[in-house]
Amino acid sequence: MKSDTLTTTPKEPRSPDMAPQLDEKSKAVIADLERRITKVETKLRDVRDLRLDIGVSEMARELCGYLSPKDPVGLSFERVGRDYDGGYVMVSHFPENRICYSIGINRDVSWDSDMAAKGYDVFQYDHTIEGLPTTHPNFHFARRGITGPSLSGGDLSSLPEEIKKNGHCNEGNMILKVDIEGHEWDVFSEMTPVELNQFSQILVECHSLYKLHKLFWFRKARQALLNLSQTHQAVHIHGNNNSAMHVLGGIAVPQTLEVTYLRRDVCRFEPCSRNFPTELDQPNNPNFAQHSLGNFQFP
């Protein structure tokens, strides 16, 4: 059940210029506290079965509730990007604005290439690679990682900072793709409704859902999903089958869930009529079975 504190009206959005940053001492204190709590959680794991724990079940249902998809009325879906890992199921809704952000590249730019072919300028970020595997006139690559404003510094920046640098503060209907191996929680837990509303679609890989019983992880993920749900509706999900499903509190969840969000003002939404995976989905790893998620409804 979602607590009242989670459904209150959000505070006045902060300016990206005023985004708080943690100093090294504060980061060390938080890291030490998280280590201490992790030790306690590890000990508790030996005396309770996380697969059957009622408290864990409530946590899982709450997070999955934010991820439950609905059908966008009057709109269809298409696959963008290569076969298997690297492709995403998107809503066939591409407004005149031709700007998208691709956060997390590694060795795959198939989604970026398909978006560039649609006429999009693609602003790409990844601090773990020297350069792109292939180039395109519409690609704009920066060797920087993306995190939350409070953690930015060095080779890490924040999405609001980069939007400002690129002169996109007044742009709307941009598209965002995020695959940054767990740092998506830092990004979305600190974004405001004003910042999120600049994107008509958001594609995000939600990693490490098997950690949802961990207090620190749960609180950050819950805030991230709450922020997203205020402005966007999940419309498609796919379980990444590179890793096995986890049973937590009686609920089977993928370790990584690919989610397509559509901004709430784009269309009306109806209860989900689809089961996942759909005919547009492909296994990330063709040698493993797909994750059967049903309609993934958690009211």
Radius of gyration: 19 Å
SSE run: HHEEEEHEEEEHEHHEHEEEEE
Structural class: alpha/beta
Counting DSSP E segments of at least 2 residues, the number of strands comes to 15
Low-confidence stretches: 1-19
Shape from CA axes? Answer: globular
Fold and architecture overview:
This protein has 299 residues and is an alpha/beta fold. The relative contact order is 0.18. The longest helix has 22 residues, at 24-45. It has helices at 24-45, 54-67, 110-117, 159-165, 184-189, 193-196, 215-231; strands spanning 70-72, 77-80, 88-91, 99-103, 121-125, 139-142, 145-147, 156-158, 174-178, 199-206, 232-239, 245-248, 251-254, 257-263, 269-271. It has a seven-stranded mixed sheet with strand order 6-5-4-9-10-14-11. It is 26% helix and 23% strand.
